[in-house]
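Second attempt. The first submission of Succinate-semialdehyde dehydrogenase / glutarate-semialdehyde dehydrogenase had a stray character pasted in from the spreadsheet, which I only caught after the job came back as garbage. Lesson logged: always re-copy from the clean sequence file. Corrected sequence (481 aa) follows.
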Amino acid sequence: MNNYKDLLFEESFVDGKWQHEGQERIEVKNPVDLSVIGKVYDEGRPFVAKAIDAAHRAFPAWKAKSAKERSAILLAWYSLIQENKEAIATIMTLESGKPLGESRGEIDYGAGYIQWFAEEAKRNYGDVIPGFTADKRIMALKEPVGVVGAITPWNFPLAMITRKIAPALAVGCTVVVRPSESTPLTALAINYLAHQAGFPPGVINTVVGSNASELGKELCESKKVSKISFTGSTRVGQVLMAQCAPTLKKMSLELGGNAPFIVFDDADIDLAVKGAIAGKFRFGGQTCVCVNRILVQAGIYDAFAERFVKAVHALKMGNGLAEDVSIGPLINQNAVKRMGDMLADAVAKGGIVATGGHAKAPLFFEPTVLLNATSDMDFAQNEIFGPIAPLYKFETEEEAIQMANDTIYGLASYFYTNDLNRSWRVREQLEYGIVGINEGLVSSEVVPFGGVKYSGQGREGSKYGLDSYIDIKYVCVGNVR
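This time the job returned cleanly.
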């Protein structure tokens, strides 16, 4: 479809059809100018229960399909998303504000999970284990867990869905998706394409509602749901884990981050600047793996800062539909206020704004560099989730590692060096699930994505991505003569 409006839907998709029970509407606004681009029916907890029932009914038949059959449908879905790439990218940019180039990139990235797990569906191997006595034959079989609840954030409205549900669908699970009410239109568009690809009714259900707490509670408390996969804040992840405890659900949690970006004095400064720009300002800093703290060794601090400030100053802020724009708006007014508050805290504690630092109506905030950052500023322990880049100075490798690990979070980390020995030493000491060495962009469907400490549990993507959606059944055949 060339016209993006052909992929705009106002109802949730449950049991193979568009339907609604809610009477109120959620206005989906373009953060560039706050214009309304769609009005989606606002569903409540009973409607989520209806979707869970549909997924529960559909599970036995979907599980019974061969891996090859499920793979073929997933590949058909992948093809339809690619065929409608421009329309989906337009919708994504309109509702999220991210530059059009980034939206296209997210579609390739997110669709890549569908393609990857379509192939992995046929490789969900079990094991034959030598018997512990001569007359026994032992097998370990992998089976789908059942109904999966996927709760996804606003910042990657396509990729966070496909990264969660593609492996679930590949092994034979059915799913209920609860996308963010801030960016639901992309989710509904790809659910429509999934239906066109041939997924049976009830296999993929998408429910949009503004009461995140109640919708999430239904998914967590339902005995018909076997697994919850969530991407979002650590605080909400802790709430969901508590709600899942009575039913002992499997959980995958991809939570907050506080990514350090370390530049050692033997690094290629220009390469490090390029990596810091890519790692910090993607989607205006509104991603969980975005650079949060830039730690630069004293000997090159001034040289790095000069080149980095120049590169940041050159970033163009504006409407993401314009091809030359690299920074769009923030998602809402709370995000803008948060940037202002964090920057004010830093300046009050001795920070120096080298470029940027101003909010622009309605939801823009200039890409900003703060020099002389210190450990007592909010940046040190809290996720920025916006276009502010604080630069810290360190003297020794040991100090850099201590500073980098001084956080409850452990999702992504980055460092730049040309010293081979240092690359091994530092990698081994960083307490993070992801480490980028001389690279600021590390996400791909082929790698295991996830964190440690308060950044969550489980891994998404890669060959490990199926593990969270399967139960292992041990089978022992005895008295074999």
